[in-house]
Design brief:
With about 350 residues, the protein is α/β, with parallel strands linked by helices. The chain has 2 domains: about 160 residues, no CATH class; about 150 residues. It has 12 helices and 9 strands. It holds the Pfam family HET.
Length: about 350
């Protein structure tokens, strides 16, 4: 059944969002409604960035009680977003990292180790998601063209942009634990411009920060090659997802205030992906006291090269924004001090 769309008023910066209902189980049917809203500074919503998937594999969702067919890939994305942001479905909260995601909305940070009071707050939130295939009237060529042009505005307005990588495999959980372990061990500014000169002990050949996690690339108990062990098999699967092979879709997510990735029901903050790339490049091209030389040749050319460049650019923009805020704060304090002395 097709959706009965009401025409959007572009002069009012109107967009449509899917307001998704909670569910008891991950695979419960998706029940939602389309709401028309104005894009304002206080609008709260999540934008989904995703490939559509195989058009032959479909699933029904229910919009205001009426069945609508979408691809199974997108349906799985919505189900897992629902599971993450209505966490009583999966009964799990995201692993608490050593450093909570910088720049993320407060309610998103609460997912990482939420207490009982915060869980109630998360459950009470209205889950609104922008999914272009559904929120844009695909039969209205004028609207499709206009919303495509407005996509930059939509991704920038969203509190969170989620890049959907697809469902988990048997090795995903252990792989994501490995990514988080690398993130926790790595100094906050490792790889940033100028950090190598400030902290040479954290770079080639010493790599002091990596000593506590050398078990990640230690051969298995039976002498297995490290990169053939489950955690690296899972990492390789993560890095070779089709999502990362599409530059245009990565350019979309790079517009976000806070981009993140979702694989199954596991959230992967963008910086974990960037840091994995930086670490692999460091060990591939520079000698190390903690990383075996023979393993360097086994590090494949990173399939995330495009993602690395874009996320590196995002990190640069974030640093510039932080510097601007600090500069403005300094000016404000100086002005205040001057006035108080007059």
């Amino acid at each position: 059944m097709s959706i009965a769309y009401r025409r959007l008023d572009s002069s009012k910066r109107e967009i449509r969002l899917l307001e998704i209902q909670s569910a008891r189980n991950l695979n419960d049917p998706i029940e939602c409604k389309l709401v028309t809203v104005r894009v304002t500074d206080d609008l709260e919503f999540i934008a989904l960035s995703s490939l559509y998937g195989d058009a032959k594999e479909t699933e029904r969702i229910y919009i205001s009680g009426l069945p609508v067919t979408i691809t199974a890939h997108l349906a799985s994305a919505i189900k897992n977003i629902r599971a993450v942001f209505y966490p009583t479905i999966s009964r799990r909260f995201q692993r608490t990292p050593a450093r909570r995601p910088h720049g993320a909305p407060r309610w998103f940070r609460q997912l990482f180790g939420a207490n009982s009071a915060q869980r109630g707050e998360l459950e009470a939130r209205s889950l609104r998601v922008w999914v272009d295939l559904v929120c844009i009237n695909q039969n209205d060529e004028e609207e499709r063209h206009r919303q495509t042009l407005d996509m930059r505005m939509i991704y920038k307005a969203a509190e969170l942009v989620i890049g959907w990588l697809g469902d988990k495999t048997e090795h995903t959980d252990v792989a994501m634990m490995t990514l988080a372990e690398i993130e926790d061990a790595m100094p906050a500014h490792w790889g940033d411009p100028g950090d190598r000169e400030k902290h040479p002990e954290d770079y080639s050949p010493t790599h002091r920060w990596a000593r506590p996690i050398t078990h990640i690339w230690t051969p298995g108990p039976g002498g297995e090659i490290p990169f053939m062990m489950p955690h690296w098999v899972g990492c390789n699967d993560f890095m070779t997802r089709q999502y990362f092979q599409r530059r245009w879709i990565l350019e979309e997510i790079a517009l976000a205030r806070f981009p993140t990735f979702l694989i199954g029901d596991i959230i992967v903050p963008w910086k974990q992906v960037l840091r994995l790339n930086r670490m692999m490049e460091e060990f591939k091209y520079h000698p190390s006291e903690v990383f075996q030389k023979e393993l360097s040749a086994m590090i494949a050319e990173l399939p995330l090269e495009t993602a690395h460049k874009l996320l590196d650019e995002f990190a640069r923009r974030e640093a510039l924004e932080e510097a601007r805020i600090l500069k403005e704060t300094g000016k404000s304090r100086a002005t205040s001090s001057t006035r108080s002395n007059e």
